[in-house]
Automatic annotation (TrEMBL):
GO terms for biological process: negative regulation of DNA-templated transcription; negative regulation of purine nucleobase metabolic process. The keyword Metal-binding does not apply. InterPro entries: PRTase-like, PRTase_dom, Pur/Pyrimidine_PRTase, PuR_N, PurR_Bsub, WH-like_DNA-bd_sf, WH_DNA-bd_sf. It holds the Pfam family PuR_N. Belongs to the purine/pyrimidine phosphoribosyltransferase family. PurR subfamily. Residues 4-73 form the Bacterial purine repressor N-terminal domain. Homodimer. This is Pur operon repressor. Signal peptide: none annotated. One of its GO terms (molecular function) is DNA binding. Keywords: DNA-binding, Transcription, Transcription regulation. Residues 112-236 form the Phosphoribosyltransferase domain.
């Protein structure tokens, strides 16, 4: 039974969104909708134009017998700016301030809409970067890594503070916490990361950068390659010094503790690092 074009377009778009950065052959769509390749090509042209017009990604078509279509979701500069502003507005709430200058973000990271924004923003930054795996540390960074992995169609690995018997053999490193200046340990299963792999590190919040610095050391232990670091939010380090200087943040948070506690959230370094657009503070 032949499928109407309107139905084909809806299902085709849904399928491409469910399989981002994956090559889908014209033959697959032709058999799925019982349609000629010429009709499928026209449909893909409509989908391509729509994504381009709305700044939500790009659809590449590859000619030839082994060709097909690849959808890469990402934000245009305008859409990324809107998403960043939305995140800033959500975080800019004095009731989120915790002792020690930390900021409560768990409720935001638990919201699917926010996670989709964070994941797509980070995927936008590395849209043309060869990445094999996304790395984060337990526990609050896990939802962010999952969202990024979904948009990039790549696996993610979780660095743990203590070993689990189900992880099998592990590699561990000691690192100095940037916020409390205390030596800690983190571990990663030997089976989760291969030598030479290109690793993207993501996390929820960074102050001194000790945890991220530990993950950088762990990546070296595996003979893998660090290709980028992005965090949802960054705060001011306790001692004024940061152990990591090559990290991108979606938002930046300034906190004032004590009786007159206050949070001031603003756009981080994302827009400048990705689009070369400096943020006006």
């Amino acid at each position: 039974m032949k499928i109407r074009r309107s139905n084909r377009l809806v299902d085709m778009t849904r399928y491409l969104l469910d399989h981002p950065r994956s090559l889908v052959s014209l033959k697959f769509f032709g058999e799925r909708y019982d349609s000629a390749k010429s009709s499928i090509s026209e449909d893909l042209g409509i989908v391509k134009h729509t994504f381009q017009t709305w700044g939500q990604g790009r659809l590449e078509t590859i000619p030839g017998a082994s060709g097909g279509a690849i959808l890469t979701p990402f934000y245009s500069e305008e859409n990324a700016s809107v998403a960043i502003d939305s995140l800033v507005e959500r975080v800019n709430d004095d009731s989120r301030l915790l002792p020690g200058g930390y900021v409560y973000l768990s409720d935001l990271i638990g919201q699917p809409e926010v996670l989709r924004q964070i994941g797509k923003l980070i995927a936008t930054q590395y849209v043309d970067t060869d990445i094999d795996v996304i790395m984060t540390v337990e526990t609050k960074g896990i939802p962010i890594a999952q969202s990024v992995a979904m948009y990039m169609n790549k696996p993610f690995v979780i660095v743990r503070n203590s070993s689990h018997i189900t992880e099998g053999p592990t590699v561990s490193v000691n690192y100095v916490s940037g916020s409390v200046q205390r030596i800690k340990k983190m571990e990663l299963s030997r089976r989760t990361l291969s030598a030479g792999a290109n690793v993207l590190v993501v996390d929820d919040f960074m102050k001194g950068g000790g945890t991220i610095n530990g993950m950088k050391s762990l990546i070296k232990e595996f003979d893998a390659n660090l290709v980028g670091i992005t965090v949802f939010a960054e705060g001011r380090p306790v001692n004024g010094q940061r152990l990591v200087d090559d990290c991108t943040s979606l938002i930046k948070v300034e906190t004032k503790d004590g009786a007159d506690k206050k949070i001031t959230a603003q756009a981080g370094s994302f827009m400048e690092n990705v689009f070369g657009k400096k943020t006006e503070n």
